[in-house]
Amino acid sequence: MDRGRPSGGGSAIDTLAPRQLAGRVWLFPGDPDPYAVRPTVAVVADDRGSVLVDAGQSPAHAREIRAGLRAAGLPEPRWLVYTHHHWDHVWGACAWPGVEIVGHEAGVAPLRAEAARPWSHRYLREQVRDNPRLGPSFRARALAVDSWDGFAVLPPTRTFGDELVLPTGVVVRHVGGRHAPDSSVVLVPDSGVLLLGDCWYPPPAHLRTPADEPDLAMARGLLSGDVEWYVSAHDEPIRLAEARAALTG
């Protein structure tokens, strides 16, 4: 895979190459460097309009993904599903014009609050000065965003409570949890893929306590014989047998 870096201004856009996981599901793998905070983005390809799962962690990241979609000949997204409201999953949304943004209702208020903040590199520095625990997250944001011109945090335009089935058969299901109250998983039944976002992870680093651990009980509850692939946003995809061995062994 060509792991392009965010491009600035009017320079050429780097291309990320998607890889097909199973059936209609294609992945743009994230950055393995945890300090980059760049998650995997999935596309469920469909001629009626693809479903994009998470927006990318910045407009630059989203532009790379859009270029990769075009290069691979995959249908343009019609829907953008947020697995949850954290910045690395939603900050690319403003670079996806014309899509319907789908998210759990619990994510609306925090995203509206984020949208009202005066984002800039200066603001990020000021926030870290006042709360040093924000340092890793906010430094990653500063590196991710090449320009604040036209940047906006976008709440969902379509919300749901427990479950939503999109016209392409993709199922979005709320699971909640300690990482984010709006965490949702995305099931692609015909491809045997469950996209987990960050749902079973502990809380974000700046909110984490020494007692916080991954939610293995939640992860075990998501195991199903109808699912062959499990995709967490910051880990490599694993098959059902591997997931069972890791969680029940």
Word description of this protein:
- With 249 residues, the protein is of the alpha/beta class.
- It has one domain (19-248): Ribonuclease Z/Hydroxyacylglutathione hydrolase-like (Metallo-beta-lactamase, Chain A, 4-Layer Sandwich), CATH 3.60.15.10.
- It is 24% helix and 21% strand.
- The protein has helices spanning 59-72, 87-90, 108-115, 121-130, 135-144, 216-221, 240-248, and strands at residues 19-22, 25-28, 41-44, 50-53, 77-81, 100-104, 158-160, 163-165, 171-174, 184-188, 193-197, 229-232, 238-239.
- The strands form 2 sheets. The protein has a 7-stranded mixed sheet with strand order 1-2-3-4-5-6-7, with no helix packed on it.
Poorly predicted runs are 1-12
Structural class comes to alpha/beta
Radius of gyration equals 17 Å
Mean pLDDT, all residues: 93
| CATH topology value | Metallo-beta-lactamase, Chain A
Strand order of the largest sheet: 1-2-3-4-5-6-7
Structure summary, number of beta strands: 13
N-end to C-end Cα span: 33 Å
The total tally of domains equals: 1
Strand proportion: 15-25%
Q: What's the shape?
A: globular
For the record, the CATH architecture stands as 4-Layer Sandwich
CATH C-level category: Alpha Beta
Fraction of residues in H or I helices = 10-25%
What composes the largest sheet?
A: 7 strands, mixed
The H-level CATH homologous superfamily, spelled out, is: Ribonuclease Z/Hydroxyacylglutathione hydrolase-like
Element order: H for helix, E for strand: EEEEHEHEHHHEEEEEHEEH
Helix count from the secondary structure assignment: 7
Domain Metallo-beta-lactamase: 38-234
Protein name: Glyoxylase, beta-lactamase superfamily II
Pfam family, one: Lactamase_B
Organism: Micromonospora narathiwatensis
